[in-house]
Design brief:
This protein has 113 residues and is an alpha+beta fold. The chain is 43% helix and 17% strand. Helix 1 runs parallel beside helix 3. The two termini are 22 Å apart.
């Protein structure tokens, strides 16, 4: 189950010193609903579970990579700029949700449709 996997990840982050229990901060249900509303999408259940367990912060986990709640509003723009910069013929669809950008050089997304 996805929730168990995220709980295990959190425990490992704490065990190895990447985060403390008070440095793990979930998104609120209102924040998750806001993401869906502001993007006119429905997020996958597994991503909502991630957000609900550690979507706002998790110590120094993945430092240099923007994927926490506070970054989400700007990530699609970052991805579109990268595609433009690379003169790429690929374009994101309206249902694509960019959930991660790494050091301004790569991004990850999923189709919410």
């Amino acid at each position: 189950m996805m929730a168990d996997y995220i709980d295990e990840l959190i425990n490992r982050l704490i065990d190895v010193g990447i985060a403390t229990s008070d440095a793990i901060e979930p998104c609120t249900p209102e924040q998750i609903a806001n993401i869906e509303k502001s993007n006119s999408i429905s997020l996958p259940k597994s991503y909502k579970i991630f957000l609900s367990k550690m979507g706002s912060k998790a110590g120094t986990f993945m430092r240099g990579t923007d994927f926490y709640y506070r970054h989400l509003p700007k990530l699609r723009g970052c991805a579109e700029e990268l595609l433009k910069e690379w003169d790429c013929s690929f374009t994101l669809s309206e249902t694509d949700f960019v959930f991660l950008c790494h050091q301004g050089s790569q991004f990850m997304y999923f189709d919410t449709d």
